[in-house]
Amino acid sequence: MPAADRPRTVLLTGAAGGMGTLMRDLLPAHGYALRPHDIRPVAGAPDAFVSDLADLGAVREAVRGVDAIVHLGGISVEAPFEEILRANIQGAYHLYEAARLEGIRRVVFASSNHAVGFTPRPVGDAPLIPVDTPHRPDTLYGLSKSFGEDLAQFYWDRHGVETVSIRIGSCIPEPTSVRMLSVWLSPADGARLLHAALIAEDVGHTVVYGSSANTRLWWDLAPARALGYAPRDDSEPYAAKLIAAEGELSPDNPDHAHLGGHFCTNPPVWPH
């Protein structure tokens, strides 16, 4: 995208969350003025928009005047359906509807590897998992991310709002489990990927996986690289310590059989 056409002011939803906090520090170096948004006050950002994604009017106000949206907001863990419905499903709809009403043409949507969590993980010489693998959500949270990807496709086809949906692994300072060695996205690579997704041309609705260039990578990063993403980090320096504590992943362990790990075998039970 020509420099003159690149988005400068970006609404960052979920700005008080884990990844949002990291991106508030890292994205400005790529040339962005961020407008933070969250349901709760954002530490260090007194001018942040504080509102509920379930309030369309408030979301539209937050969106007004920005060049693009990075949507990290909503619930980022498994939760009862009523909470997921309000924050992740209705909230995502309001975000897209506000973008349409305010003429915003680029969204970067934080999807998740849990949208395809029941996909068997690659073992041995098996090929990397492609982005066109069917949705196989492992949780209600993953189900909401499948909905978000379909919503993004609908808003592109019907309204011309472009989206890059990123199936994020674990964007934290360092991996904390052996499974995470395969899906880790370093914060610096996370900012590089968001930047690439914001400035790539003619994305329509593009789905990519979001991880660093890990030695133990499970999924195909070629579509992300096609956007201009050039990951620089690898989880391997953390491998020896984690393997010493946990052991290697085993095909005989049901928790290791799928991309979603233990989320596929130990779903939480919510009281009714």
Notable traits:
single chain, alpha/beta, Rossmann fold, 272 residues, 33% helix, seven-stranded parallel sheet
Topology:
Elements: E1 9-13, H1 18-26, E2 33-38, E3 49-50, H2 56-63, E4 68-71, H3 81-102, E5 106-112, H4 140-159, E6 162-168, H5 180-183, H6 187-199, E7 205-210, H7 222-226, H8 239-246
Parallel strand pairs: 1-2, 1-4, 2-3, 4-5, 5-6, 6-7
Q: Can you give the helix content as a percent range? A: 25-40%
CATH superfamily: NAD(P)-binding Rossmann-like Domain
Provide the low-confidence segments as ranges: none
Determine Rg (CA atoms, Å).
Answer: 18 Å
Strand order of the largest sheet: 3-2-1-4-5-6-7
Number of strands: 7
- Domain module count: 1
> How would you sum up the global shape?
globular
Helix-strand sequence: EHEEHEHEHEHHEHH
Q: Structural class of the helix and strand makeup?
A: alpha/beta
Number of helices: 8
CATH architecture: 3-Layer(aba) Sandwich
The description of the largest β-sheet is: 7 strands, parallel
Q: Which CATH class applies here?
A: Alpha Beta
The pLDDT mean sits at 94
For the termini, the CA-CA separation is 50 Å
Strand content: 5-15%
